[in-house]
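Model it.
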Amino acid sequence: MKIDLANEPHLLKHTRKRKKLTQERMAEIMHIPQSTISKIENGLMELGSKDFFKWMRKTDSQDILLALSLNIDLTAATDLISNLANSGLLGIILGGLL
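Modeled.
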């Protein structure tokens, strides 16, 4: 299964940068060449679902994963996750999701 990111072409780049990871460091984490990271982030190569979930875990992007899963606005999901994290309920709600 491939993850369709056509509507969010820079989503993966955003999550990587938000975590303050370089393409080189992300390549090490993902065990793929840096050139592949660049191609993925620019929509020139698809990312399989297993690697997509790994990317989300490694960039702490549960908010974006939740938004994609529920088909809701990314900003709303980010706000929701922030509020849950501040309340201490995030761990209980997400449990073993990732």
